[in-house]
Sequence to fold (523 residues):
Amino acid sequence: MIQVKDLKFQYPGSDSLTLKGLDFNIEQGEIFGFLGPSGAGKSTVQKILYKILSGYKGEVMVKNKALNKWGKDYFEQIGVGFELPNHYLKLTGKENLDLFASFYKLKSQRNLEQLFEQVDLLDALNKPVEAYSKGMKMRLNFIRAIQHDPDLIYLDEPTSGLDPVNAQKIKQLILELKAKGKTIFITTHSMHTADELCDRVAFIVDGEIRIIDSPQNLKTKYGKEAVNVKLKTGENQEFPLKELGCNTEFLQFIKQGEINRIHTMEATLDEVFINVTGKSLGV
Amino acid sequence: MKHLFILAGTDFKLIFRDPSLRAFLFFPIMLFAIIIWFVPSLIEKYEILEDYIPLFIMVGAVENTQMFSFISSMVLIDEKETQVAQMYGIVPLSRIQFLLFRLLIPYSFTVLLNVILLLTQPFVHISFIYILLISILTALIVPAYVLGINSIVKNRMEGMIYIKAFNMLVLVPFAAFFVPENFKHVFGFLPTHWILQSIELVSIESPQNGNLLLFLLIGFVFFAGVIYWLARSFFKKHFS
Fold:
């Protein structure tokens, strides 16, 4: 769906490159995540891909066509959920969505009320957006991005500003979109979101991609293939996963007292990120 | 065409729901009342003011453009401040279409207001073709002003400051009315100068048609250049 080769970009007035030659592909029907701290270049990549920023160097192909060869019909096929809520505050939620739906040839194929209901906003359908909370505006951002049934969806921090219940709802909707064959490109600094949603993630730091792989592979590769057992007595021991069932030391240990917990020693995505990039996402 | 009405409808909703913008819709009514009733009674009382009739007509025509210059500027500044402008960068609408659809209605309204003002002003008779040409030219202040403001400012606060500065800039060429004939065109570097010169010519009893057409032509070319240049700058900044 998307092929990017040696993508470079420098903001006017800046003395250094924001993107320093990125290479990545996104397959049709995939959820691909860009992970990195603020200022790493995640949003810049998305802005280039949805054609808000021009003047980049390198090759960007979308649906086997160079991005700069796409005309305004490109926008029929993409949906964008921005990082921050951006709506007309004096208009109602419905008026906001109706306005932007009117620009698409395929008109809104999705029922507006159904969309509002899916994100628990039905009661606020006819309320002015200035009366919405930040979380409500973010959910409105999300349904605006998908209301015209695009094939390619760009989501910038899709769960930012949402409470856990609504964040879970949005994640579920993203997975439903994937099940329908939509290609989704997420940028986030939430490892938890990336871990739950993405088929593959790219770690981006200082305008460079350090690694691309599936969250599971990364966690396994950078974690220990071992289990940690903790007994209620407080005793704690690690055992290799290999031939665990035949490991007499392990079997003796778990018989020796009541078990408090057993867990695998795979790394969290946060730990992998720090390991690979040497930086924390809190930066 | 559908988009033109949808966007115009949205703009009017935004204007009517914002008390600070809604109040500005009454500005032309006040202006008409001043030009049609107040100024004639003033001239009747103080005959010396008769010499300034062209000036009153100029002020009326230029100030008529200020309602939509202000309102449309503020609507677009709000759009930028709330980052809604980004949305227009990712919908199947070209930037030229966006601009045309946003500014055509304010521009057309302003042309209409000036046609009505120049037809109803009680001071001099102006032929309809000149009224139309002058109104079409004068209303070009609206897109130039809106694009100029929105190419510079980032938020409403900055907008208010620059709007004051632009108001003064638009009015600077009025000074030509008070300088000797030889120095009149010293203000020709501002496009509004050519509007004012055209209005002054049609306001005197025997306008020199040749000069009038030349002033109008310079005005149109000047505004076309300014609007083109400002639109390029606007496109670079508004959607990102």
